[in-house]
Amino acid sequence: MNNYHIVSRSRSFFESGQTRCLCFRLNSLQKLKSALTENKQLLLAALHADLNKSKHETWESEIEICLKEIDFHCNYLTCWAAEKRVKTPVVFFPTASMIIAEPKGVVLIMSPWNFPIALTIMPLVGAISAGNCAILKPSEFSPATSEALAKLISSTFDPGYISVVQADASRAQDLVTLPFDHIFFTGSTRVGKLVMSAAAQNLTPLTLELGGCNPCIVDKEIDIEIAARRIVWAKFYNAGQSCLAPNYLLVDQQIEEPFIHEMKAIMKEWYQDAKYPFARIVNQFHFERLDKLLETQTIVAGGDAQKISLLIEPTLTKTTFVDPIVHEEIFGPVLPIISYNKIDMILEKLKTMPKPLACYFFSKSKRLQNHIINNVCAGSICINDAIVQYANLHLPFGGVGASGFGSYHGKKSFESFTHYKSVMRRSFWFDWQWRYQQ
After folding, report:
1. Is it the case that residue 99 has pLDDT exceeding 70?
2. Omega cis (within 30) before 258
3. Is the pLDDT at 276 greater than 80, yes or no?
4. By the 8 A CB rule, do 211 and 192 touch?
5. Please, what sign has the CA dihedral across residues 293, 295, 299, 303?
6. Which listed residue (133, 216, 243, 359) is catalytic?
7. What is 81-142 written as a DSSP string?
């Protein structure tokens, strides 16, 4: 079936009105939860085939977080979807004013390869709870997971309600030109611009969740062991193939040496001694891109790259702000380190760079914490930890500027796929005469 007929099928299903019923939405969320749980082994195997992900990491970052999102929506959906009465100016008496949350219609969700389950299902939960029909386009670079998702969805839902399109880049380009009611895209800034350009032809509203060169700033007033452990974990999670991973490390020069020493010790314990399994680079293209980056770096730790297995060892390098590696999203297990002596000089430099998806700051100083919060513009800021803000469903997740626009998670997921319709209802029994021209 071609793209046009898939969208037409979903449009017909939406026009039937079934998705507007709250019971239908809640039942669909529960069916999705059951499908994820029952197909756990299928999904674990698919992620292992695509990215060599461990069972623990796949469950934690790909499945469990989706189950929690579903439970969150089931608990609050009735409240979110309820008609909201608002005040009306007395000059319009007798009048009732309200805001009605209604579904946008047929939505397209385009997800990337790095977290192919979570970044497909998390926005889908919002689309379902808001009452939409959805077409999912997972990445062709994670084919095993894409096939697993297609099987899961097709065995759970009517294809007119939710369907999966497995397609290459050319068919995906055709898909985004069709008249959707909303497009939710997660991926690179480069592809995001193409999606936005195509969507503009139909004035289709967008949510763009893009990447960013996320800075991680380490002050001298810290617990070195805990800070190093949290940064190493966050950076090398999924082999650094995460839009939220620290892109480069800015360390106060007074603690640079002991801090690097502590990170190297943790990396040896976790990865060289094989305490934790390590994901591989997704494909040959990205492996060669990262390998080429390493050629320009002064390596402090790691650096081994195995072309046949697509494995790159967790790596620390020394660099400066003029190095191109600081100005592109690395998306791999390479962490460049820059030393600094004045925090305000760092903040001035960050203001000249594209706004990141996240900024991380490690310090015991409440004054400096507030200084960072008030002077850095980023999609999110996390103090004394990294990437964990993603797991808080009460916090909206999204970028700003070059790192994207729109947000989701929890209530924000519902709102992203909802049109809030203003309604004003008047009576005939009284009419103010002074409003008319005399």
Report:
1. yes
2. no
3. no
4. no
5. positive
6. 243
7. HS-EEE---GGG-SEEEEEEEEE--EEEEE--SSSTTHHHHHHHHHHHHTT-EEEEE--TTS
What pLDDT does 120 receive?
98
- Which H helix or E strand runs over 153? helix 143-154
The question of whether 133 is a catalytic residue gets the answer: no
Specify the length of the chain in residues.
Answer: 438
Distance CA 3, CA 258 (A): 56
Could you read off the pLDDT of 312-321 as tens digits, one per residue? 999 999 999 9
In which residue are the tokens 């062991």 written?
A: 225
Q: Is 333 helix (H, G, I), strand (E, B) or coil?
A: coil
Distance CA 262, CA 271 (A): 14
175, two tokens: 């898909």
- Decide if 214 contacts 389 (C-beta within 8 A): no
Give the mean model confidence (pLDDT) for residues 84-98: 92
Mean pLDDT of the chain: 94
What is the 8-class DSSP label of residue 389? G
Does 209 participate in catalysis according to the annotation?
A: yes
pLDDT in tens, 193-247: 999 999 999 999 999 999 889 999 999 999 999 999 999 999 999 999 999 999 9
Q: Which two tokens stand for residue 75?
A: 């608990």
Sequential DSSP letters for 289-311: HHHHHHHTSEEEE---EETTTTE
Angle of CA points 419, 424, 428, to nearest 5°: 155
Distance in angstroms (rounded) separating the CA atoms of residues 150 and 311: 28
HEC readout, 207-243: EEECCCCCEEEECCCCCHHHHHHHHHHHHHHHHHCCC
The sign one gets for the Cα dihedral 291, 139, 232, 371 is: positive
CA distance linking residue 25 with residue 14, whole number of Å: 12
Antiparallel, parallel or unpaired: β 380-383 and 206-209:
unpaired
CA distance 115 to 61: 8
The band of 40, judged by pLDDT with boundaries at 50, 70 and 90, is: very high
Q: Is the pLDDT of residue 273 over 80?
A: no
Identify the active-site residue in 62, 209, 262, 313. 209
Sheet containing 162-164: order of strands: 162-164, 133-137, 106-110, 182-186, 206-209, 404-405
